[in-house]
Amino acid sequence: MIKNILAYNEEFVAQQKYKEYQTGSKYPNKKLAIVSCMDTRLTELLPAALGVKNGDCKIIKNAGGVISHPYGSVVRSLLIAIFELGVEEIMIIGHTDCGVGYIDVETLLGKMKARNISEDSIDMIQFGGIDFNRWLGGFECVEQSVKESKELLCKHPLIPKDVAIRGFVMDVETGKLTEV
After folding, report:
1. For 24-29, which contacts have Cβ atoms below 8 Å and span 24 or more sequence positions?
2. Per-residue tens of pLDDT for the chain, all 180 residues
3. Max Cα separation, the chain?
4. Which end of the chain is more exposed for a tag (fewer CB within 10 A), N or C?
């Protein structure tokens, strides 16, 4: 697959197709950051449903669109977006039918072992303080997950109080947003 992508990329550059995506700068035009899920159904639906184009906002994606740690990579990215890139508003967007809602950690660990991740490696990581249930576990309710991520940001000591933070759930069929 990567070989095909590289071949496409060569043609993309040769035909100067990149020109339609060029923007004025690295600063988001709409001063907006979005935290959302990496679900493939959202790749084009999310920006289309929000009316955002290349250059308009910073989009941070991960499994479930969850902010799972107050000092993890998502918050790091948001802090840089706020203090270095001028972001003034944050949207946390979960979605219907999210696969993270169905994750069973024991099953996931079983899949790791089936792919030759050793029991010793798993034990070492747990001994080092990683709670697999918290780190890799899913959620039962996407609305609650969005609320928890929003609350974490609203209470975060490094997020300025003048940054607007709102949470939503997007319908993966229609793109409709519902605020939570």
Report:
1. 24/55, 25/55, 26/85, 27/85, 27/86, 28/55, 28/56, 28/57, 28/58, 28/81, 28/85, 28/86, 28/87, 29/55, 29/56, 29/57
2. 999 999 999 999 999 999 999 998 999 999 999 999 999 999 999 999 999 999 999 999 999 999 989 999 999 999 999 999 999 999 999 999 999 988 999 999 999 999 999 999 999 999 999 999 988 988 999 999 999 999 999 999 999 999 999 999 999 999 999 999
3. 53
4. N
